[in-house]
Specification:
Blueprint lengths: L5 E5 L4 H12 L8 E5 L3 H18 L4 E5 L2 H5 L4 E4 L6 H13 L12 H17 L4 E4 L4 H11 L3 E4 L6 H9 L6 E4 L2 E2 L2 E4 L1 E4 L2 E2 L1 H10 L1 H7 L12 H10 L2 E2 L15 H8 L11 H21 L5 H5 L8 H10 L3 E8 L12 E9 L2 E4 L7 H24 L2 H9 L7 H12 L5 H6 L16
Parallel strand pairs: 1-2, 1-4, 2-3, 4-5, 5-6
Antiparallel strand pairs: 7-10, 8-9, 9-12, 10-11, 13-14, 14-15
Helix pairs in contact: 1-2, 2-12, 5-6, 15-16, 16-17
Length: 460
């Protein structure tokens, strides 16, 4: 018999995500009668989301129930599933930090303190789950999925499943090639934001030759004429295809944007590799557009929540989203088996990767749990030049976070492709840590030498 669940959503002020979750729950009969607790520190957003969720549910004839709270403990009480979408620092704070980078000669990204604040938030949530609802599944839906899920699974005993949209990049390839997505079988293992399409099958046949044909016949024209439909429209960009030519497998989703330094030296270089008008999502042009679109959607949601005549079903539709959270909840709860793309501890799924590293792999999910598919070993060149360096960078970041060793932050800055001198990296790191809003990070990280000693390395 179908079973209802109790779900706590942390960071529920992410309105588009929260209301997509509500829609999927409403359209999943097995989860009828479920209860959702929305938690956020922004009371205005929280109220708007809850009102709209209640109205959508009423319009569609579902019997979901809701409550809202600013208390994480209340949201976690008796939860079967916890979905964490929260981020610790705002987009606007990140803009301020990028301005500091620029004064030291770095474009868009520069020296920093990793994911210090998000790590704190993730561990706080995970430890609260361990204490309040230890049998619940945490579905981590906010970045950094790779680093954060590895940290939480090592530091706590809770059950963690990380999710990301990136693997849907193969949809863009399929649409461009004119292929029916429902007839495609694909596989793209790796770690989050570094996944590689090992299988691209159409009607039982290898479809990689179709990609090669498109590159040969249409690629050059596409790269010269294509105008990105959105800030993240890079799946068939010159830079992505270049990485495919380097490694023999297509990098999928967000993976191409984290390619090596030569793709990212300045805005003109980024546009060359990732196309007009944005140069990919990580530029001073793209990010404001992305944030503006989020704010427009939020304002639309606020206005609709205050308009009693607005129809929520017209605003959000009545078709399920392609998000995996609700189908996974249904699979684990009601044994509706499916295959999903998840981020879980490796435990042998990818050869050559430590078992306690969280990897992104396909998995069969049912009431027995999450069972990762053993995908074997990725090509050695990808392992040596992409996957293992990504894992080492993650381990380096976690060790810096754990120890508070500031010299590890400096080491990372010195190894940036944009760094030209020791003094440049040192100065940028100091200024970032002293930026308003970064006080806790500044207190946490210390050099492993006497205070003031670093000055001897800065003399001309």
């Amino acid at each position: 018999m179908p079973k209802a669940v109790k779900i706590g959503v942390i960071g529920a002020g992410s309105a588009t995500f929260s209301l997509g979750l509500v829609k999927d729950l409403c359209l999943t009969e097995n989860l009828t009668g479920s209860h959702v607790t929305f938690m956020d520190i922004d009371g205005d957003r929280l109220e708007a989301v809850t009102k709209m969720a209640e109205r959508y549910t009423q319009e569609i004839g579902s019997n979901l129930s809701f409550e809202q709270t600013t208390s994480r403990e209340v949201a976690l009480a008796d939860a079967d599933f916890v979905i964490n979408t929260a981020a610790a620092q705002s987009h606007y704070h990140q803009v301020d930090m990028r301005a500091v980078y620029a004064t030291h000669g770095y474009y868009y990204r520069g020296p920093g303190f990793g994911s210090y604040y998000n790590f704190n938030l993730m561990l706080d949530v995970a430890r609260d789950i361990e204490r309040i609802c230890p049998d619940a599944w945490l579905i981590q839906s906010g970045n950094p999925v790779f680093d954060g899920c590895t940290l939480m699974t090592r530091e706590t005993s809770i059950k963690v499943c990380g999710l990301c949209h990136g693997h849907y990049g193969y949809y863009h390839i399929a649409r461009t090639l004119g292929l029916d997505i429902d007839r495609i079988d694909f596989q793209a293992p790796g770690v989050n934001h570094c996944i590689w399409m090992t299988h691209f099958i159409y009607d039982g046949e290898d479809a990689y030759p179709l990609i090669d044909k498109w590159i040969e016949e249409e690629g050059p024209t596409y790269w010269e004429s294509h105008v990105a439909e959105g800030t993240h429209d890079i799946q068939l960009s010159r830079g992505t295809v270049h990485q495919y030519r380097l490694y023999g497998l297509f990098p999928i989703g967000d993976s191409p944007r984290l390619g090596n330094w030569w793709y990212h030296t300045d805005i003109d270089t980024k546009k060359w590799w990732f196309g007009e008008p944005f140069g990919g999502p990580d530029t001073h042009i793209a990010r404001p557009v992305h944030v503006e679109n989020l704010e427009k959607r939020l304002n639309q949601i606020r206005e609709a929540s205050e308009d009693p005549a607005a129809k929520m079903t017209e605003l959000f539709g009545t078709e399920k989203t392609r998000e995996q959270q609700v189908p996974i909840i249904n699979a684990l709860t009601n044994n509706v088996e499916g295959q999903f793309q998840v981020n879980v501890q490796n435990n042998g799924a990818i050869e050559g990767v430590d078992d306690d590293v969280v990897v992104e792999v396909p998995a069969i999910i049912n009431s027995k749990g999450i069972q990762p598919i053993q995908v074997g070993r990725l090509p050695k060149k990808i392992m040596l030049e992409q996957l293992l360096p990504m894992i080492l960078n993650m381990e380096h970041g976690l060790e810096a976070y754990r120890t508070g060793d500031k010299s590890m932050l400096l080491w990372e800055a010195l190894n940036s492709g944009q760094t030209r001198s020791y003094k440049q990296a040192f100065g940028a790191l100091e200024d970032i840590l002293q930026q308003p809003g970064n006080e806790d990070a500044n207190d946490h990280f210390r050099y492993p030498w006497p205070t003031g000693h670093e000055s001897v390395y800065l003399e001309e």
